[in-house]
Amino acid sequence: MRKKELKLVVTFHTTADAMAMEKLCREQQVPGRLIPVPRAISAGCGLAWCAPTEERDHLTEVMSSGGIDLEALHECMV
Amino acid sequence: MNLSDSKKKLALAGVICGLVAACLAYFGNPANMAFCIACFIRDTAGALGMHSTETVQYARPEIIGLVLGAFIISAATKEYRSTAGSSPMVRFVLGMILAIGSLVFLGCPLRMIIRMSAGDLNAWVALIGFVLGVGTGVFALKKGFSLGRAHLTNRVSGGVLPALMLGILILALATNLLKSSESGPGSMHAPILMSLAGGLIFGAVAQKARMCFAGSIRDIILMRNFDLITIIGGFFAVMLIFNIVSGNFTPGFNTPGIIAHSEHLWNILGMYAVGFAAVLAGGCPLRQLILAGQGSSDSAVTVLGMFAGAAAAHNFGLAASGTALNAETQEVVAGAVPMNGKVAVILCIIVCFVIAFTNKRSEGK
Question: How many domains does chain B fold into?
Answer without folding.
Answer: 1
